[in-house]
Amino acid sequence: MKTLLFALTHQDDEVGYAGAIARHTHAGDRVVLLWLTRGEMTEVFGTLPLDEVARRRTESGLEAARILGCEPRFMDFPDTRVQATPEAAAEVARVIADVKPDAVITWGEAWGRGMRHPDHQATGRIVRDAVTLARISRVVAPLPPHRAAAPVFTMRGEFSTLPCAAIDVEPVLEVVLEVGRFYRGLVGWPPGDAWLIDRLTAAGAVAGCRLAELYDAWETPPGLFDRLV
């Protein structure tokens, strides 16, 4: 059994990663789904107080994790103000030292719509720095450092030149659609099953299968796989 850490930003980010998450959980792997914020700045709940929005989004993360079969964790970085600082990286490094993942999946440097959200860009930098900092005893004490290999994968953008790891998600399509339908009913996104299927089909055309998700493989060989590790 492998352990994977998906370190994202807002509750609903996992829609784009749901196929890879489900491939691993369905294979019996442990998947920890971490959100750095509580997503409290969204306007989909109208003028509710920020603490009530954060509560609702925390609940939505719990339900999405249930659908995907993974372990939810939450941090309290400020939504829309995530900053890639040494202190932030050290905080996430302590999570990595606790989880001890065999791989870490997060946001990359891509600048397509959604990917270019400043919180997503900052999250990717924080998490990638944290993978290294988690190896340093003085950073993560009193936890023991996590020095085992933990390759990084990030969501692939259209113009990426990094090696591509493609995950065949056709066997877990219904789980991906269920997560999408859950969030569509809650926040109005994503815009229908067809949007998700079209996205996965386009990625599959690149990967050589019917439905896929594409990831930048920062430290592992490229190719089409059932799972990332």
Oligomeric state of shown chains: single chain
Task: Quickly give the structural class.
Answer: alpha/beta
Proportion of residues in β-strands: 15-25%
Form type: globular
- What is the CA-atom radius of gyration, in angstroms? 17 Å
What is the name of the CATH superfamily? LmbE-like
Poorly predicted residue ranges: none
First and last CA, distance: 10 Å
Which sheet architecture does the biggest sheet show? 8 strands, mixed
> Which H/E pattern describes the elements?
EHEHEHEHHEEHHEE
Number of separate helices = 7
What CATH calls the topology is Rossmann fold
CATH architecture tag: 3-Layer(aba) Sandwich
How many structural units, i.e. domains? 1
Core attributes:
globular; single chain; 40% helix; 229 residues; alpha/beta; Rossmann fold; 7 helices; 8 strands; eight-stranded mixed β-sheet
Q: Care to give the gist of this entry?
A:
By secondary structure, this protein is an alpha/beta fold.
Question: Any overview of this molecule?
Answer:
The chain has 229 residues and is of the alpha/beta class. Helix content is 40%, strand content 19%. The protein has helices at residues 18-26, 50-68, 86-99, 118-133, 137-140, 173-187, 193-207, and strands spanning 3-8, 30-37, 71-77, 103-106, 152-155, 164-168, 212-217, 223-225. Helix 2 (50-68) links the parallel strand 2 and strand 3 (71-77). The longest helix has 19 residues, at 50-68. It is globular. The model has no long low-confidence stretch (mean pLDDT 96).
